[in-house]
Amino acid sequence: MPPRNPNQSRSNSFIPYLAFIVFCAIFVFKVDIIISQTIFTARRNVDIVTSAPTIVIGNGTFHRHFIVSWGESRARILEDGELLELSLDKLSGSGFESKKEFIFGKIDMQIKLVPGDSAGTVTTYYLSSEGDHHDEIDFEFLGNSSGNPYTLHTNVFSQGKGEREQQFFLWFDPTQDFHKYTILWNPKCIIFYVDGVPIREFKNLERRGVPFPKDQPMRIYSSLWDAEEWATQGGRVKTNWTLAPFTAGYTNFSAQACIWSYRTKSSACNSNDFKSKGWLKTGLDSRSRAQMKRLQKKHMVYDYCKDKWRFPKGPGRECRFH
């Protein structure tokens, strides 16, 4: 047997190692491909699921913007956060409030009121600041005995002074469907709208000595509560508790508003916003004001400006400029 070549023997000894290295490289490459395909497939499946028309992702409006402030289980947020219901029984009513405060805003809310005999109940939707000299802008819906219309009660407080009530009989049944109630509050005026129709205007008349809400941040509030001592026909018609619980619904909330920051003691709106955003500078034009006057003539049932019994020395100075 001829002697073995040592160099050839050393070369042959490296072959197994080389084969192992090649095998590992191929294995890693294959695993990388499998992982990449898996990730791609997973992403594709996620895209398909989230874009499928059968998948409905709610905005959770009431979860995001409001908290239930009282009444515990009598206030319920339903339909993925897009419907809020308040209820009232003999033990308690209920209410909610916005998480944020605002300086000026255009606030829309659709409400369906307590049906049937709602005498003694009051459903509210309003803006209010805090403190003894608070500002407030009110929608209040005074319940009725069956067959009688709801009374829509409006009021404006500035620097703690209210007594500016105007009341209307609604020209539709507010219990059969949701209707939109809007508060527009900007540096020029406050306007109340029902289904997009202006029903009341409170102008900024500071130059005439009338305080106007413009410096105190306000929060959105709503409640359903028992006011049988005064709400229906001056308290002559009491709440029929055998019909409880009474329920009102809220939906389609939206807001264009200047959010107030307690950290900076300022609002989110700047000088450019006051120039460019229509709701911050709009008021009633002549056509809209004429529409409002026609509606008031037909549907207004109380105007503090004409109440000589309550105000024998005359109502507020702002009444001269309505």
UniProtKB/TrEMBL annotation:
Domain GH16: 8-250
Source domain of life: Eukaryota
Active site (catalytic residues): E136 (nucleophile), E140 (proton donor)
PTM annotation: Contains at least one intrachain disulfide bond essential for its enzymatic activity.
Stored InterPro entries: Beta-glucanase-like, Beta-glucanase/XTH, ConA-like_dom_sf, GH16_AS, XET_C, XTH
UniProt-listed CDD domains: GH16_XET
Pfam families named in the record: Glyco_hydro_16 (PF00722), XET_C (PF06955)
GO molecular function, one term: hydrolase activity, acting on glycosyl bonds
GO terms under cellular component: apoplast
Record-stated family: Belongs to the glycosyl hydrolase 16 family. XTH group 1 subfamily.
Protein name: Xyloglucan endotransglucosylase/hydrolase
Organism: Forsythia ovata
Lineage: Eukaryota, Viridiplantae, Streptophyta, Embryophyta, Tracheophyta
